[in-house]
Automatic annotation (TrEMBL):
Name the record gives this protein: GNAT family N-acetyltransferase
Domain N-acetyltransferase: 127-257
Lineage: superkingdom: Bacteria
Protein species of origin: Pseudonocardia adelaidensis
Transmembrane segments: none
Cross-referenced InterPro entries: Acyl_CoA_acyltransferase, GNAT_dom
Amino acid sequence: MESVHSDAQRAVITRVDEGHWRAVADDREVGRGDASRRPDGRIFLSVDAWHGTVFDRLAEAMLAELPRPLHTLVDGIDHDTTARWERAGMAVRRREWLYEVPTGSRPDVLPPPAGVTLLPVGAAEEGPLREVYSAIRAEIEATVGWAAMPVEVPVRPAGAPMDPSRYAVAAGPDRYEGLVRVVARRRHARIGLVAVRADRRRRGIGRALLVDVLAALRRGGIDTASVDIDESDVAAMALFEGVGGRRVGSGLELVIR
């Protein structure tokens, strides 16, 4: 233990490039820090170090050299790491609940309203998809603000191309009414966004679209999907719990301004 502590004290912190720091003691890497800029401009930090002292020194160096605000994500039960970021000056901004959702069939779910057709992942046209995404984003910005969305939901610049292979949509007679963003990899899928236009909510569109996506995942050999939900989003929690989702963990977002 004394040797490890000595390494931590002797470690030299170096900024390798714009987004990476290294802690080196006796020609051995004993820790590293990373800063990544999300599409919406927010910078998220992470530190990987064997010793708490190295963690603290890396965090201090990164916070001193980067423009603010700065963010980080911590597992909701990782109290030690949360405390270290708080000692560095960060404060908890919000909590996200992690849900796991089974993809099994649900014969009791009602179909979407008349005139609404569910298009599976990959079937949407890019133009109408971009339009419904932009409209829904504007509605969210005007109410709770996009910052209340799960951290993993990317913000797309205005006019940027959309990837239909990551979206299922509910198509109305003359426009798309809602969408689900889903990324499937091997045996698991992650749902990033379920949203319906404000003037078309409370008609069962979102639930029908979500269930259709889950059924498609099951047919593709995927048994469960995961989703992050802000702890204040009661409607989203009710939606996912209503299709069998259960809370399995949480994450904290911390920020320093």
